[in-house]
Amino acid sequence: MNPNSVNVSFEPVIWARLLEGRKDDISPEAARYLLSIEFGESDRARMEELAERSEAGVLTQQEEAEFDGYLHIGNLLAVMQSKARIALRQAPVEAPQS
């Protein structure tokens, strides 16, 4: 990727700040849902292809923007899932239903 690229997406940064500012606990149900979100096989294959092209220094501008999008969304998802794991660790243990 071109380190001088001006094509920056601010949305993931804004989302991350928004989530950091949230003080309420995430419900266990919401936490489990967040932890279930993952990239599909075709997206993982595309990210790998773009990563290889990036390492080789042959990304087009469009591919660079696409790769940056994957990286931003992946980072945002990682932050959200980290918060979900913390919420599940802090959640009160429910008594088994009889």
* Tally of DSSP helical segments: 4
According to DSSP, the number of beta strands is: 0
Largest sheet: none
Q: Which secondary-structure class do the elements indicate?
A: mainly alpha
Order of helices and strands: HHHH
Helix content: 55-70%
Give start-end ranges of low-pLDDT stretches: none
| Number of separate domains | 1
> What distance separates the N and C termini?
57 Å
Q: Determine the strand fraction and express it as a percent band.
A: under 5%
User: Could you say which overall geometry the principal axes of the C-alpha atoms support?
Assistant: elongated
Overall pLDDT level: 84
Radius of gyration, taken over Cα atoms and rounded to an integer in Å: 18 Å
Written overview of the protein:
The chain is mainly α. The chain has one domain. Helix content is 67%, strand content 0%. The chain has four helices and no strands. Helix 1 runs parallel beside helix 4, helix 2 packs antiparallel against helix 4 (61-90) and helix 3 packs across helix 4 (61-90). The mean pLDDT is 84.
List keywords for this structure.
mainly alpha, 4 helices, 67% helix, elongated
What would you say about this model in short?
The chain is mostly helical.
Task: Set out the fold topology.
Elements: H1 11-21, H2 28-36, H3 41-56, H4 61-90
Helix pairs in contact: 1-4, 2-4, 3-4
